[in-house]
Amino acid sequence: MIAFLMRLLSAAVVASHLFNHVTCIPIEDGTSSRNASLVELETSATPAAPHWVIYSDQWVSGENGPPDPSAVKGFNTFIISFLLTSGAADQALEWQTISASDRSAIKSQYAAAGIKLLVSVFGATEAPTTAGSDPTTVANMMAAWVKKYDLDGIDVDYEDFGAFDGSGGSAVAWLKTFTKQLRVHLPQGSYILTHAPVAPWFQPDAWSGGGYLAIDQAVGNLIDWYNVQFYNQGSSMYTACTGLLTKSGGAFPGSSVFEINANGVSLNKIVIGKPAVKSDAANGYMSPSTLASCLVTAKNMGWSAGVMTWEFPNAQASWISSVRSKVFA
């Protein structure tokens, strides 16, 4: 999808999403005419948990938009990456450039298969707070793009680690404003809104401005779930069921699934994110069978939020089938 980790690891080790985003075109600077009041956002169109989420950023030979739904059977959320402040890149750019009729056909096929289509924004190559981007303006632009290109929602993969690890709490304030403004144009009941923070950002008493616990307290009611990145945080972090689920320890204590829940985050909003294969992350990989065993434990403890993976095509239908096989088949 890591700058505070630079204190512990090399810059090469800490990159969450390993593919750079090199081709962009501008977004039209239009905004939606809809001005829904935030106080009216009472109903949610969010699919019920569990959420089985897969990202797609790689170019795939012969591809014309997302793959046939059969290739990702077992997932119910497909996220194309990335939409940047400068425009669409990678799979978001591909979605933008295919014909409107192709987009419509793919959207219909995915809907029939029960799979929502979202776009992820920012990613590891963009630092919007540090760059001085205005959160309201960016939210207006990105919401307009989601509507224009007929997607089911937006995923906020904010990775401005310099701002988040800073002393002024600027990242927290930026994300609060950005999330509220997205919901003005992408209201609950019509669009899905997720965030994809790294797990340590939920660590209590560790981040200026309160970190993601403060974000959840302020605007968590506007966020449908969190695609939490339980990877790229160090070679010993989140690699066994105990560290992933109940006692993270190490450099980031208090950031496992049930510890995050104990800190106030709704349990079934904590989607467990893992790389599809070892090469999709610097560390934090679990085999599908090991992850499946962890899900049994989590389910027995009351969790059923689901799993996110980075990324297609290294993860496909067979990957999620294995992950779900022991308790969510």
UniProtKB/TrEMBL annotation:
EC number assigned by the record: 3.2.1.14
GO molecular function: endochitinase activity
UniProt keyword terms in alphabetical order: Carbohydrate metabolism, Chitin degradation, Glycosidase, Hydrolase, Polysaccharide degradation, Signal
Catalytic activity of the protein: Random endo-hydrolysis of N-acetyl-beta-D-glucosaminide (1->4)-beta-linkages in chitin and chitodextrins
Membrane-spanning intervals of the chain: none
Gene Ontology annotations of biological process type: chitin catabolic process; polysaccharide catabolic process
Signal peptide (from-to): 1-24
UniProt entry tagged with the keyword Signal: yes
Keyword check for Hydrolase: yes
Pfam families the UniProt entry points to: Glyco_hydro_18 (PF00704)
Start and end residues of each GH18 domain: 50-329
Xref: PANTHER family: ENDOCHITINASE
Family statement: Belongs to the glycosyl hydrolase 18 family.
Name under which the protein is recorded: chitinase
Organism: Lactarius akahatsu
